[in-house]
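Hey, sorry to bother you again with one of my protein questions. A protein chain has come my way and I'm curious about its shape. It would help a lot if you went through both lines with me. I owe you a coffee for this, so here goes:
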Amino acid sequence: MRMLNRRAHILFEEEDFNLLELLAVEKGSSVGELVRKAVKRAYVEPKDEALERRKKGFQRLIKWQEKIGVFEGLNYKALVEYGRVR
């Protein structure tokens, strides 16, 4: 288990805190542990999922690039010359 080394002071309404205490007793954990798990589910895990989606998208782009080749860019000088001829 990781060492907990940061503290946050959170104020709850009485009714909400009582519910958290009951849930903690039911689950055999602490209110703090319930709050930490809720924060992970709400804020940390969704970011991990988004990162995975971006990685998969990037891999698809790389495969597509390998399939079609590398775009070398436009020859602007040739385009300008072509425009002058017309």
About this structure: The chain has a mean pLDDT of 86.
